[in-house]
Design a protein that fits this description.
This protein is α+β, with helices and mostly antiparallel strands. It is built from three helices and seven strands; from the N terminus they run αβββββββαα. The longest helix has 17 residues. It binds ligand GNR and nickel (II) ion.
């Protein structure tokens, strides 16, 4: 397992359209392991392979990343510290995902992206979608997905088409976001 570098805007690789996975082999497993390790370390709740420079239709999501850097729990009334309970991990892998049947109902969520660090903006997306995908064994799955998982899955699907969440903003808001990112980088 290895943590890999996350590509950031304006890297042109992020605009590539990713290609379907055809070989469900050990190399794919290593890629997925590295994606989880990189995502948890960032930390983030999702990652597409293209963010590591690999143009394959592979996504990982965990809405409950175990955040080791979280603030320590406050003392309870006994004066004892609560044991730090790591959040239960819920890793999910989506290979060759297809999203259909978007709901008419939409949800606005303030999104961020590990490839557009420290920039957050509201994006409106369908609240529910039907997802079909394959797992690491090539087995097919189908599920209707809603809530934050639906938002995150659609954000990750966009990466497979070379689309970033800032591409959903007006040109003015996108330019403002990119200017802010440039400024943050210069200050760092
Ligand atoms: O960590 C992430 N948080 C997030 C918040 C709202 C909507 C989508 C996301 S995904 C993002 C990680 C990332 O960049 N995935 O591509
Ligand atoms: Ni992203």
């Amino acid at each position: 397992m290895a943590i890999r570098e996350i590509l950031e805007v304006p890297d042109p690789v992020l605009k590539q359209v990713s290609v379907p996975v055809t070989e469900f082999n050990a190399e794919l497993r290593t890629l997925v392991e590295d994606m989880f390790e990189t995502m948890y370390e960032a930390p983030g709740i999702g990652l597409a392979a293209i963010q590591l420079g690999v143009p394959l239709r592979v996504l990982v999501i965990d809405l409950q990343p175990d955040d080791d850097d979280a603030e320590p729990e406050p003392c309870n009334h006994d004066g004892h510290h609560h044991h730090h309970q790591p959040t239960k991990r819920e890793p999910r892998v989506f290979i060759n995902p297809v999203l259909t049947d978007p709901s008419d109902e939409h949800t606005v969520y303030q999104e961020g992206c590990l490839s557009v660090p420290e920039i957050y903006a509201d994006v409106e997306r369908p609240s529910r979608i039907r997802a079909q995908w394959q797992d690491l064994d090539g087995k097919h799955h189908e599920e209707v997905i809603e809530g934050l998982l639906a938002t995150c899955l659609q954000h990750e699907m966009d990466h497979l088409e070379g689309v970033l969440f800032i591409d959903h903003l007006s040109r003015l808001k996108r330019q403002m976001a990119l200017k802010k990112l440039e400024k943050l980088r210069k200050a760092a």
